[in-house]
UniProtKB/TrEMBL annotation:
Keyword Acyltransferase part of the UniProt annotation: yes
Biological processes, Gene Ontology terms: L-arginine biosynthetic process
Protein name in UniProt: Amino-acid N-acetyltransferase
Taxonomic classification: Bacteria, Pseudomonadati, Pseudomonadota, Gammaproteobacteria, Vibrionales
InterPro entries: NH2A_AcTrfase
Keyword terms: Acyltransferase, Transferase
């Protein structure tokens, strides 16, 4: 998990992306340990808001790069 996250952080920074979003139903604690914080569905980019499945009850997390 950490290797993949570090790769995504590096790749995002190289493409001038300043924030990463993840949705999880089981790994909330791990993502928080990595610096992510919980946000509401309204925080997602517009195109992603419409795709959010409320029935899954996923937690939405963000990480500022």
């Amino acid at each position: 998990g950490l290797l993949l996250l570090n790769y995504m952080k590096h790749r995002s920074k190289s493409e001038t992306i300043d924030q990463i979003f993840v949705l999880t139903t089981h790994s909330l604690h791990w993502f928080r340990e990595q610096g992510f914080y919980e946000v509401s569905v309204d925080y997602l980019p517009g195109a992603k808001q419409g795709l959010y499945n409320f029935q899954r009850k996923s937690k939405i997390l963000a990480l500022d790069l």
